[in-house]
Specification:
Elements (H helix, E strand, L loop, with lengths): L13 H10 L4 E3 L8 H8 L6 E3 L9 E4 L5 H8 L4 H13 L5 E2 L10 E3 L5 H4 L18 E6 L5 E6 L2 E5 L2 E4 L6 H8 L7 E7 L3 H7 L14 H9 L4 E4 L6 E3 L4 E14 L2 H6 L6 E4 L5 E3 L2 E12 L6 E3 L6 H22 L4 E5 L9 E6 L5 H15 L6 E6 L7 H11 L6 E2 L12 H4 L18 E4 L28 H9 L4 H8 L2
Parallel strand pairs: 1-2, 3-17, 4-11, 19-20, 20-22
Antiparallel strand pairs: 2-3, 5-16, 6-7, 6-10, 8-9, 9-16, 10-13, 11-12, 13-16, 14-15, 18-19, 21-22
Helix pairs in contact: 4-8, 4-10, 7-8, 7-10, 10-11
């Protein structure tokens, strides 16, 4: 994994990665103090899809730095991990998540995350950067931490994931787990245990760990018991380092910047916001935007009771914070999912799946595009199997589309063209899994609760759309696309470089792709 400057990306810790981004000229940084209350997300939205941003001074947190937009630009991400574009990325990630490199233990005295151990006055909001995303919500969220669970509670494997929190009671935080997610599964399995669940929340983790933490609802390929920390190790090409927690029977990422140790109490449920608590109503009051592009709502959630805070001391801890429904968030959540869906289809029928893409407009867990290369008539049927299997194993997926290899799955113009010209509405549109498990984060599904509270227990999935926009095998010549002779014409014979640049600058949309391919 060699960069443009010849320097190998450094992936063992977030701070090393930030240093590499700076050296590569891929980092925007500022010394102007930034307010976690609305300013960070406002700046991120202004620069959505651009370079990583480092804030050297953070209001209320003089000892910390904050980075955002780390995964906002996939060209930067590809350079960081040494991937040669989207298709190469998906295949290499599919291999990584199925060929883990197990983490290695380091002694507590060697772990950077335990250079300082705090056991008293555990006011979480004093040590963890909480942000407010929009003016619609009244309280800040801690959304930058990754839950880490290793061993028996994860059936012998290792888990890392995102869970939003609100530290409303000093050392006690709400702990939200998306319905059906890995932590939801753990909470459900141990709901009636006499003892709480020991775990850590790690902040400022290595980039490969962040990437795996964002995966979700791909549990056929990464089930409970899988080694997700090992998958992160395979992504970065070397094992993650872990360390035993100081106060609970749990593990932390040794090279992260701050750790909350504690116990998760599944039955000690409390409201995420004071507003929702005062009204005694779940699923109504705004709190934390969600991946589907709508405002999230406040619920009663299990609580995480912090027993210790450990952090780096020799250097300023770096927090990676981000807004939800940004490209930063979207790319974290979809990159591994694309690989997992690819792996799912490859297991069902090897050689047929060509690529998988989840466009930003399909929102994280809301949809996907499958690209297939048919070999015989039987593949017409297998494509339908792929579509239904993908939707059935990804709770709440609302749209899945299959296209051929002559369609660029990274262009929504191409996708809409295929839908317009290749779909028979009577036979090519399926509606899988009506009545199945869905997602409360999508308002259309919340409506199924009727007059009941908008919670996961009360909604029902209405079914998604699985659309086969592929050409029936054997009819390829009937659907042949024209190819204009762009490769035979050198514009420089007719125009100056300035004229060509001026002419190209006026082109917008689908024509840019078609002019490159000649289609």
């Amino acid at each position: 994994m060699v960069s443009a400057t010849g320097k190998t990306p450094r992936l063992q810790s977030l701070r090393e990665t930030v240093d590499w981004l700076r050296e590569e000229g891929l980092l925007l940084e500022t010394e102007v103090e930034v307010d976690p209350d609305l300013e960070i997300t406002g700046i991120q939205k202004h620069l959505d899809g651009s370079y990583p941003i480092l804030f050297r001074r953070v209001k209320g947190y003089p000892d910390y730095e904050v980075v955002t937009n780390l995964f906002a630009n996939m060209e930067v991400v590809d350079r960081l991990f040494g991937w040669d574009g989207p298709r190469d990325r998906t295949r290499k990630l599919a291999h990584a998540i199925t060929h883990p490199i197990p983490p290695v233990e380091v002694p507590q005295e060697e772990a950077p995350c335990q250079e300082e151990v705090i056991l008293t006055d555990l006011e979480v909001n004093r040590y963890v950067v909480a942000i407010r995303h929009t003016e619609l919500e009244k309280e800040r969220t801690i959304g930058s931490g990754n839950s880490v669970l290793v061993g028996p509670y994860f059936r012998g494997g290792s888990h890392i994931g995102y869970n939003r929190m609100n530290a409303r009671w000093g050392n006690v935080c709400t702990f939200q787990a998306a319905p059906g997610s890995h932590m939801w599964q753990v909470i459900t399995e141990h709901y009636h245990d006499d003892r709480p669940i020991p775990l850590t929340m790690c902040f400022g983790v290595p980039p490969a760990a962040t990437l795996i933490a964002g995966s979700g609802f791909d549990y056929v390929v990464l089930p409970m018991g899988a080694d997700e920390l090992g998958a992160a190790g395979a992504v970065q090409g070397s094992p993650l380092r872990v360390v035993r927690a100081r106060t609970v029977d749990a593990w932390a990422l040794a090279d992260c910047d701050l750790v909350l140790e504690g116990h998760l109490h599944p039955r000690d449920k409390r409201f995420e916001t004071a507003e929702a608590e005062a009204a005694g109503v779940q699923g109504k009051y705004p709190f934390h935007p969600e991946w589907a592009g709508y405002m999230g709502k406040a619920y009663r959630a299990p609580t995480f009771h912090v027993t210790a805070i450990t952090r780096r001391r020799r250097a300023k801890p770096i927090f990676y914070v981000l807004g939800v429904h940004t490209l930063d968030d979207n790319n974290i959540d979809t990159t591994v999912r694309e690989a997992a869906i690819f792996e799912l289809c490859e297991r069902l029928q090897p050689g047929l799946i060509h690529d998988v893409h989840i466009p930003y407009c399909m929102t994280d867990w809301g949809g996907c595009i499958l690209q297939v290369k048919k070999r015989n008539r039987l593949d017409d049927g297998f494509v339908r199997n792929f579509l239904v299997a993908t939707m059935a194993t990804s709770f709440g997926m609302r749209l899945a589309v299959a296209v051929d290899t002559d369609v660029d799955i990274y262009s929504m113009d191409e996708i809409v063209w295929a839908l317009t010209t290749r779909v028979n509405p009577r036979s090519d549109i399926l509606t899988p899994v009506p009545g199945g498990a869905g997602q409360t984060f999508v308002p259309a599904e919340r409506l199924t609760a009727g007059e009941q509270a908008w919670t996961a227990m009360n909604i029902r999935f209405e079914g998604g759309l699985a659309i086969d926009a592929t050409v029936p095998y054997g009819y390829e010549k009937d659907f042949q696309r024209p190819v204009y002779p762009v490769h035979r014409v050198d514009l420089r014979r007719f125009f100056t470089e300035d004229q060509i640049a001026r002419g190209k600058s006026a082109m917008r949309g689908w024509v840019e792709l078609l002019s490159r391919t000649g289609r």
